[in-house]
Amino acid sequence: MANINNYEDLKNMLDNLLREPEQFWDEFYSDREKSIPFFENKPDENLVSYFNQQLLNSGNALELGCGPGRNAIYLTEKGYKVDAVDLSIESLKWARDRTIEKNITINFINQNIFDLNIEESKYDLVYDSGCFHHIAPHRRMDYIDLIKKSLKQNCYFAINCFIEDGPIGGSSISDWEVYSIKSLRGGLGFTEEKLRRIFQDFECVEVRNMRVAESNEPVFGVDGLLTAIFQKKF
């Protein structure tokens, strides 16, 4: 058994204790015909709304946990140069197929987000649709540091995550309970108060429930997700 000699060793040990392995996500994305709402190639309704509110324009974007690429594709079509990261090679294969169909270019990165070599203050937008609620509490400080390092001054970080005890997931267990039961129970849930507290170093622009979109709308929106956008002001 490996010894724990420093803080990184401790975090890696806890990662292995709690995180779903890459194989889990590869199997999850391997069947493209599964009836999973966010498998549809539509951007998040809140992401579209940020353009409508003229919060977003264009520039460099980093997407954390891009899955099959639906939001990265939308951002590219809106004029962003996108780096899109995901742990699953199967999700990125699907995303690349979609970019070929649309004749666009996205820089896909198959990596753990905490292993990224990020250029400081490179991005005008960091976007996360469904990655954060799979991150254990011991990695939150690293997550926040990643956002801080990545973003330019006065630029935006936006997130979608499970609502606490919501209809599609969102465990209400405490941070302490995560380690006592050795599980995130499929993903942690959050409230507006929790998000504001976790990202208190940023200026909160908006926190709200995701709007439920009709099936004929060109956007993705379901009940059970919390959306938020923050601005880097330090």
TrEMBL record:
GO terms for molecular function: methyltransferase activity. It holds the Pfam family Methyltransf_25. Residues 62-153 form the Methyltransferase domain. Keywords: Methyltransferase, Transferase. Gene3D superfamilies: Vaccinia Virus protein VP39. Transmembrane segments: none annotated. GO terms for biological process: methylation. PANTHER family: CYCLOPROPANE-FATTY-ACYL-PHOSPHOLIPID SYNTHASE, FATTY ACID C-METHYL TRANSFERASE. This is Methyltransferase. It comes from Viridibacillus arvi.
